[in-house]
Amino acid sequence: MFSRVLVLSPHTDDGELGCGGTIAKFAEKGREIFYVALSSCEKSVPSEFPPDILRREVRRATRVLGIDSENLLLYDFPVREFPDYRQDILETLIELRERLSPSAVLVPSLRDLHQDHRTVAEEALRAFRQCTILGYEQPWNSITFNTSAFVPLGKGHVERKIEALKCYESQRHRNYLTPDFIWSLARTRGTQIGEEYAEVFEVIRWVLRD
């Protein structure tokens, strides 16, 4: 259904966390996938790591998921300050829309509590008015989430998601990166639709042209 998919990740690792299994599945099916990280979060990198560590880690992680290296696009908006750069972010997204013409855009939930995540979701809704927009789940940032679209996953898709997240050595202190959490969430979402594993999205905009 979606021939060209654009994943908008406010920070490196958000895309893998929210929809890594779906990315792996789409890549396996030959869909063209672009991954955009709007910040490499240098200000929040633990002191024992070099400032550019997340740029290295996202390259490894997206390669594990099957994304071509030339389809990884990295920007340097300051972490935790996205609301102050709202217009610049919008203009970046419009440029991406004109250059890539995606059929679907995967973004954080509009209900995400993190200010950077929510800014990206809101500006994506303005920039990508003519294609499907799906909000991915990051439950540690959401009080409520509208589970309105599901992508069934195979075991291998979840395994690749976990392998991709293991590339983020600088983020291992995050409890939501543990394999146990990733497996349990995938099983929970799968159970809701009678599958073994799944990822869930909220439908922000749904455009059917075929």
Q: Quick one: how many beta strands? A: 7
The order of strands across the largest sheet is 3-2-1-4-5-7-6
Estimate the helix proportion, in percent: 25-40%
Rough shape? globular
Using the coordinates above, name the CATH class: Alpha Beta
Strand content: 15-25%
CATH superfamily: LmbE-like
Structure description:
This protein is 39% helix and 19% strand. The model has no long low-confidence stretch (mean pLDDT 96). Helix 1 runs parallel beside helix 2, helix 2 runs antiparallel to helix 5 and helix 3 crosses helix 4. The chain has a single domain, classed as LmbE-like (Rossmann fold), CATH 3.40.50. A seven-stranded mixed beta sheet has the order 3-2-1-4-5-7-6, sandwiched between helices. The longest helix has 15 residues. The chain contains six helices and seven strands. It is globular, with a radius of gyration of 16 Å. The chain is an alpha/beta fold and 210 residues long.
Please name the defining characteristics of this protein.
globular; 210 residues; 7 strands; Rossmann fold
Q: How would you summarize the topology of this molecule?
A:
Layout: E1 4-9, H1 14-28, E2 32-37, H2 53-65, E3 72-74, H3 86-100, E4 104-108, H4 115-127, E5 132-136, E6 149-153, H5 155-166, H6 179-191, E7 197-205
Helix pairs in contact: 1-2, 1-5, 2-5, 3-4
Quick overview:
This protein is α/β, with parallel strands linked by helices. The protein contains 6 helices and 7 strands.
